[in-house]
Amino acid sequence: MTFDVAVPDSFLYGTTSDIDKTFKIFQLARSLSIFRVENIYIFHDKIINPSNDEISFMITLLEYLDTPQYLRKKIYPKMDILKYAGKLHPIQSYHHKDKVSLENIKNGESRIGVLEKKGNAFFVDVGLDSLIKYQGKIKQQGKKLDVKLLKKNNLLTALDTNRENINELYWGYKVYHYNFIYDILKIYPKSRILLTSRYSEFYRVNSDFSENLKNYAQNKEPVLIVFGSPKFGLNEIFNKERINMANYHSFNFFPHQGTQTVRLEESIFGVLSILNIFLRT
Question: Cβ distance 227 to 42 under 8 Å?
Fold first, then answer.
């Protein structure tokens, strides 16, 4: 089983300075990476209605943080959104590989690269001493892609690969933005959607839903966890979009909390920590 996460694009609500916004998104990226979240869906909050600039700030920085360090300067030009990103610690996900010499590359090793065109041929930069000849199907310069490196007679070539064929424990997350939360919900069966709300029943490890999670883990089926905004819970968000919360599983993961509120970034880390016991490698 894997976990996917849905959060509102008002994630940065109440955070005023760019440096605080940057660190808050870094906390989110770390949580997603620690608990091996494969997809983060960002849905439009129609109550707070954040600006396009704030939404772009969130999406751009999340994608930047998931990109290996050796590709960042090639993919992302200088921009105000990233002016404090250099102060952040590395995410240290498994696909953020170190630079090594060509002779130390293992045959069949997977890496993330970016395409470059030299004359009529395409090469891929995967963070090594030189570019690697690309023999895949994509013909878009500057495209970020996953490749498998094949070694023959001390020569390396790069071929297309996908996540299903990569043996690493975790290969990062993908970021999506939707205007309507329902468009995200309909991707999953209702039985594999989990809503978080302080007004719902307390989550219990021995509940029927927990037993279902064990089955999803065995079958490697993804489960979607949905979070409310920093100001409004899912009750208000779902009412605004005329969605009945009663049609979905919903739990309170912080019974008897000792603070008046649980911040969104804290809630994401806490919920994923609790559900982590159901993950299977």
Answer: no
